[in-house]
Amino acid sequence: MTPLHDAALTAARDCLGIKDHETVLIVTDEHRYSIGRALFDVCRDLAADVIFMEMTPRRVNGQEPPAAISEAMKSVDVSICPTSTSLTHTDARRAACAAGARVGTMPGITEDIMLRTMRADYHRIARLTNKIAELLTAGTVAHVTSPAGTDVRLPISGINGIPSTGLVLEAGKYGNLPSGEAYLMPQEGQSEGVIVVDGSLAGVGLITDEPIRFVIEKGMAVSIEGGAQAKQFEETVNSVGPKARNLAELGVGTNDQAEINGTILEDEKVLGTVHLALGNNVSMGGTCNVGFHVDGIILNPTLKIDDQLILDNGKMLVQA
Questions:
Q1: How much is the pTM?
Q2: CB 3.0 to 4.6 Å from 154: which of 60, 61, 186, 299, for a disulfide?
Q3: Contact 318, 135 (CB under 8 A)
Q4: At residue 227, what are phi and psi to the nearest 5 degrees?
Q5: 232-253 as b/e, with b when 16 or more CB fall inside 10 Å?
């Protein structure tokens, strides 16, 4: 068995808990074929039946898969989705979970990420992630600042924090693999301030020129400023439409094995970072249903939830 197959086995056996009576669907595209194939190979020894479906790569994160794949996802016990763009915040994933399936999404994963992050202690990550999610749920206002200039307040009263622990073991549950984040949507139309993305941005990659600055008014990104990467991103946002500007998510990374490398799947899980996303928030209980969900990573953030300091200049203050 290759190291990639070892990592795939950890994902399938430990994180998704695949049983010998279950049917598993692997959804992939040409850019992640080797990972999809490794998952298929190990699942053949774990499950009663395994299906492999390859689709044309999607254009943006959150774009729906073909109807045939959406239907298949509803008809199996477990779907594993190593794809070049994210299926996490799609109607297909939501419908699969509503039908009782477990879904592990792996948007943008590479072999290097797979080999490194699947060695993490996901039970310890789960303890920290659950604690952060509880603090988010109990909070009324989250305040994020950073040395690069982020200063944004997000009302979160009455919103449930969601733990993405890397352990997807119950019917109807879903999560990223690798994982390690606690997140929620802020109250719609309420957040105010400035977000400066200086780590990475989904669909753009590592921020290599100027940080990308978002001015947030009434929960919407009313301006997107910066260099060439900001211009590129704004063109994508404009091509999707006004709903793409919705401030959809506040997330906190909890995985100590993850590293910033330009792949959002891993970047948003890095311990000591905060990410804020634009676009679709339906998976978090919101009303903004658009085929777009893009996370931006903020480095060295300070995060306060009401009067409690969670992160101080990138240092996690909550103990697992």
A1: 0.87
A2: 186
A3: yes
A4: -95, -145
A5: ebbeebeebeebbbbbbbbbbb
Tell me the residue length of the chain.
320
Average pLDDT over residues 86-115: 96
Element (H, E) at 115: helix 111-117
Q: Specify which residues 270 forms β-bridges with.
A: 255
The β-bridge partners of 303 are 144, 311
Count of alpha carbons within 13 Å of 49, Cβ hemisphere only?
5
* Residue spans of beta strands (DSSP E) within 146-225: 151-155, 162-164, 174-176, 181-184, 192-197, 200-201, 205-206, 212-217, 220-225
- Fold observed for domain 3-117: Thermophilic metalloprotease-like (3.40.1830)
- HSE toward the beta carbon, residue 125, CA cutoff 13 A: 29
Angle, in degrees to the nearest 10, between helices 67-74 and 91-98: 20
3-state helix, strand, coil in the chain (%, to 5): 30, 30, 40
320 pLDDT tier (thresholds 50, 70, 90): confident
The count of C-alpha atoms lying within 13 angstroms of the C-alpha of 164, restricted to the half-sphere facing its C-beta, is 29
Task: State yes or no: pLDDT of 1 exceeds 90.
Answer: no
Q: Please name the amino acid found at residue 45.
A: D
The answer to whether 236 and 203 have CB atoms below 8 angstroms apart is: yes
Confidence of residue 119 (pLDDT cuts 50, 70, 90): confident
- Eight-state DSSP code of residue 270: B
> Tens of pLDDT along 201-252?
999 999 998 999 999 999 999 999 999 999 999 999 999 999 999 999 999 9
The first and second tokens of residue 167, run together, are: 């352990």
Token output for 126: 């789960």
Residue spans per domain, the chain: 3-117, 122-316
Integer Cα distance of 103 and 162 in angstroms: 15
Q: How far apart are CA 115 and CA 120, in angstroms?
A: 10
Rounded to whole angstroms, the Cα distance separating 24 from 12 reads: 10
Distance CA 193, CA 78 (A): 40
